[in-house]
Design goal:
The chain is α/β, with parallel strands linked by helices. The chain contains five helices and seven strands. Helix 2 packs across helix 3.
Length: about 190
């Protein structure tokens, strides 16, 4: 009887592992694991902060109209590079939505993708995201280092990089809120 119980448990474990990798349940489980293992980003000490060289950067808004990043010069800025097809981006975007809900109108948000509009709009609707999407113009120089998404930067009003995070992070926490409040009040 003991052997039979172990066999059933092994079969159950194998089915659980298979479900994790090949079913929608597995996709949601991976998003949850990414959320659980994402931590608050590190904040660069004031004396070590680099300054972006230039705000001269052209992007596209949600209506596909071009605009200049220069409009954010002198403001606190939250920049996130993401991709709808990258699993870590989804987990991270959920916390970014919370930051956006709390700081819209006080911080300029650039949630940037290089994807086409239609799949991005479908992704946004599917996940009930309301933050503004910004579209990267391929080949356009930008003030941030190249890299794979997700990548996030928080800039002070003077253009100093207070946070430079590659990879997933939990943005909706007291540490980030305190930083943003400090940068806004400067």
């Amino acid at each position: 009887m003991n052997k039979r119980k172990k066999t059933y448990l092994n079969i159950l474990l194998i089915l659980l592992v298979l479900a994790f990798f090949v079913t929608p349940l597995g996709y949601e489980g991976k998003v949850l694991l990414n959320k659980i293992f994402s931590f608050s980003p590190g904040i660069t000490p004031v004396e070590e902060r680099a300054r972006i060289v230039d705000y001269d950067w052209t992007l596209k808004d949600a209506e596909w109209n071009q605009f200049s990043f220069e409009r954010s010069e002198g403001n606190v800025v939250f920049v996130n590079f993401w991709a709808s097809w990258r699993l870590p981006s989804l987990a991270e975007l959920q916390s970014i939505q919370e930051v956006y809900d709390r700081y819209k109108g006080k911080v300029d948000f650039y949630i940037i993708t290089d994807e086409e509009r239609e799949p991005v709009e479908a992704f946004m609707e599917e996940h009930d995201f309301t933050f503004p999407v910004t579209y990267l113009i391929i080949g356009e120089d930008n003030p941030f280092p190249d890299g794979d998404p997700p990548r996030t930067y928080i800039l002070s009003k003077e253009g100093y990089i207070a946070v430079a995070k590659e990879g997933i992070a939990d943005w909706s926490n007291k540490k980030v809120y305190t930083l943003l409040d400090t940068l806004i009040s400067e």
